[in-house]
Amino acid sequence: MDLEKGVKKMTLGHEQGAGAPCLKCKDKCEGFELHFWRKICRNCKCGQEEHDVLSSNEEDKKVGKLFEDTKYTSLIAKLKTDGAPVYKRNIVTLTNPIAAKKDASFNTITYEWAPPVQNQALAVRYMELLPKEKQPVAGSEGAQYRKKQLVKQLPAHDQDPAKCHELSANEVKQMEQFVKKYKNEALGVGDIKLPDELEAQSKEPSKNDAGERSTTGAVGSVAGQPDANYACFRCKLNMKKGDPAVYAERAGYDKLWHPACFVCCICSELLVDMIYFWKKGKLYCGRHYCDTEKPRCAGCDEMIFSNEYTQAEGQNWHLKHFCCFECDCVLAGEIYVMVNNKPVCKPCYVKFHAVVCQGCHNVVDPEAQRVTYGNYNWHATSECFLCSCCGKCLIGQKFMPVEGMLLCSVECKKKLMS
To answer: What pLDDT does residue 203 have?
Structure first.
């Protein structure tokens, strides 16, 4: 009975988003179909984040689980059905009247996420300071960007052993300890504040670690003008008077960022919903923080907790996941070819990726020497790489390419064109 429940649960997990169109491949993809252990579509090989999967509820559950047992429990609620934590996103809707119209009409903008601050005007100003294409307005490019970053920056399989493929009991225990550690030591959520107001609060008789604090207010500064008292930790440019800044508690409130500068130090993407990981003076997204702590399998995208794993082509792999990207056959001891940074077995390479010789019109074996010029390829043999007019072998010789043909001299070109 337990086995049946487990199988059903796995099937439902693979049904999530099934058939969703690929935003990258368009009509070339038949619809999202999750690979049974890779985190990609079986049809087009793109990740779930590249598909139009309606998964806001699942993402809210994922972030809710991330905040569970942390100081950020105020950002989650418990579902009545199963008691699972769910993320309470701050959704802001603005309704503005449209001028110069006879009938009363309104322009409504909904942000699918906004900073959880009491001052809504401050939250809206924060959103306006983000690049237009990254503002999470419902139905916009920015909303799609936020959804994609939730998947990329905070993979469910980086925090939940149940989302991983066939972990041993020991690996589950190691992962649980790892997640507990980063929740205690690195995880944080950005805080939006006006630097002047924070400075005013700090003027009360309290001192920082150095025993002093600058209390020079922005006297005489004008709204919208650079304020020399506050410089962004990333770009080093001054904040503008009246603009909100992002603070990270784990970094200390002596550091602040422009909203558009609060990014991961590795991928340079906006830290989704201001969720950050702080390590050795740097901001990371969840994915790249984990990459600094554990090797990640290039096959299944999961962190590796086993002591035994394979390193090949500058990447790490679970022993069982160093497989052909096309047919999933194990490549240990086999000939393979790297295609777009993915290993492909020789039969699949010949079938799907091999180039065709312009001379004999046969496939060029991946182990065979070949000559490439532009989009054309030849076997590096006297039978294939030769003058199209006189048949002279051109290996090591100068040649003239003409529409896929090779010519050894001007004389041969004249003959061929006459």
So the answer is: 63
